[in-house]
Write a structure and sequence with these properties.
By secondary structure, this protein is α+β, with helices and mostly antiparallel strands. The chain is 52% helix and 15% strand. α4 (67-98) packs antiparallel against α5 (103-124).
Length: 189
Amino acid sequence: GVFDGHGGSEVAHFCSRHFGIGQLSPPEATPDSLATLLSDSFLAIDDMLALPEAKRELAELAQEGTPEEQEEERRARARGLEVLHQSLSTDLQMFKKANQVDRERGVQTLLKMLYYSKLSLQARQPTNPPAPVTADFVGCAANVVAVTPTQLITANCGDCRAVLYRGGKAIALSVDHKPNSPGERARIE
């Protein structure tokens, strides 16, 4: 699954720790049981976030690491950005020399560029001391895909989507939950 924090990463980390997809073993996992498990897991996480224990865990997640550890993590991210930048430069030079782009390599490079952009923006964000964290003020969009030998079963919550690329075409596997879409607005109200 992919868990993307909104307003902070704490709820995303909480969801990744507690999401229940690992509860079924392959012999007992059917498409119906996986779909039910995915739906139940989203609901269970929502219930868990209201508990006092979750509030304590979110506060701990916000405070993880000493200032020295946090500085070392910042330096490690900066090093990672530099390595990613060098990899992108190498890819672009290779494309320029070859005067063509292999489709698979082009897609990989595009994904690297998007990831690099996201990390660069995050690195430029000012770091302020964390405010008290509760699930009332931070959240998480999530997209989970269960893979069986014959099916992909997706579930999502929030402004996120799963897309399958097949035969040169993008195929939507989920629909974003946006408050301005009619179905979502009706569900909320």
